[in-house]
Amino acid sequence: MKNAEFAILSLVVEDARHGYNIEQELKTRGMRAWTEVGFSSIYYLLNKLEQQGLVESQLKQTTGKGPARKVYTATEAGIEACQQATIDALALPYRTYPPVLLGLANLDCVPNAAAISALRQQEQALTQRLTDIQTAQVAQSANTAAKPIFDYSLAMLTARINWLKAYCAELESKEQKEA
Q1: Where are the beta strands (DSSP E) in the chain?
Q2: Are residues 103 and 157 in the same domain?
Q3: Domain that includes residue 8, residue range
Q4: CA dihedral defined by 41, 73, 63, 20, rounded to 10 degrees?
């Protein structure tokens, strides 16, 4: 199961939801900082999960004058799939192929100053992401289930930023020696 499907399924397993409610939960919980669910893909993913028999939908009339909404609930198979995906996500190391590794493999293709500039750009972007996640963490401080998610994200970002700073300093030192 892909991460986006898992994220949507987990929200439906938690409680019956319609697409707009899922969007609100993604925003409220700051999940976009650590999930791959785009706004436009929510209904696509719900339909996909329904075709797989992991969720089922029912049209429910809203209170007031609004239109009926398609509300999704998890099936037994969906609950089991969510449980297994959770265990797999916790137990299995995952492979990532960050583009920075390709960039590092090809450092000889660009001038040292250009490489340093690009790495510093990444450092700034990650520092901004760190700030954004810290802000989301404060907003979610009452949600104890979110604490390890934020702790992990912040630890990983901090490690990447620290590596970038150290490596840029190494490249800068090398450039000064060559000058």
Answers
A1: 55-60, 69-74
A2: yes
A3: 3-91
A4: -20
CA distance 3 to 25: 16
Residue 86 shares a structural domain with residue 160:
no
User: Does 65 score more than 80 pLDDT?
Assistant: no
Same domain, 79 and 63: yes
Where among 91, 118, 135 does a domain terminate? Answer: 91
Report pLDDT for 80.
98
Q: What's the one-letter identity of residue 13?
A: V
Produce one character per residue of 91-110: b if its CB has 16 or more CB atoms within 10 Å, e if not.
Answer: eeeeeeeeeeeeeeeeeeee
In tens, the pLDDT along 10-44 reads 999 999 999 999 999 988 887 877 788 888 899 99
CA angle 72/2/131 to nearest 5° reads 95
- pTM beyond 0.85: the answer is no
Average predicted confidence (pLDDT) for the chain: 91
Predicted pLDDT of residue 39: 81
End-to-end CA distance of the chain: 52
72: left (phi over 0), alpha (psi -120 to 50) or beta: beta
